[in-house]
Amino acid sequence: MRLFKLSLQYEILKIMLEKETLVFEQNLPELIKTDLSKFVLIKDEHIIGTFVAIFDALKAGYEKFRDQPFFIRQVLPAQQPLNFANNYLLH
After folding, report:
1. Cβ neighbour number for residue 35 with a 10 Å cutoff
2. How far apart are the C-alpha atoms of 76 and 69, rounded to whole Å?
């Protein structure tokens, strides 16, 4: 049952971050030119900023959005399937 609950929560977060994923994909070519290897923080349709360290991106996201979901992804030519959301939503 716990596995099902986590799977369902993951799917909900994936849907919630659909806009952010699209913004990331649309801006990726430019981000690769300007911010390669950095971490980009996205909320809704807005790129909030780019950060050298993932911890800085997470800190900014938690400070600005608290219990709302936000999206962080490293800017790389080949993407790995990693999405971050506020852990508050997983409880």
Report:
1. 18
2. 22
Give the residue among 86, 65, 82, 85 at the shortest CA–CA distance from 73: 82
Express each pLDDT in 30-45 by its tens digit: 999 999 999 999 999 9
pTM of the model: 0.76
CA-to-CA dists, residue 35 to 31, 38, 55, 81, 91, angstroms: 5, 6, 16, 19, 33
Chain-centre distance for alpha carbon 10:
13
User: If you search the block for the tokens 């994923």, which residue do you land on?
Assistant: 21
**Backbone torsions φ then ψ of 33, nearest 5 degrees:** -70, -40
User: How is residue 71 written in tokens?
Assistant: 């999206």
Cβ-based neighbour number of residue 69 at 10 Å: 19
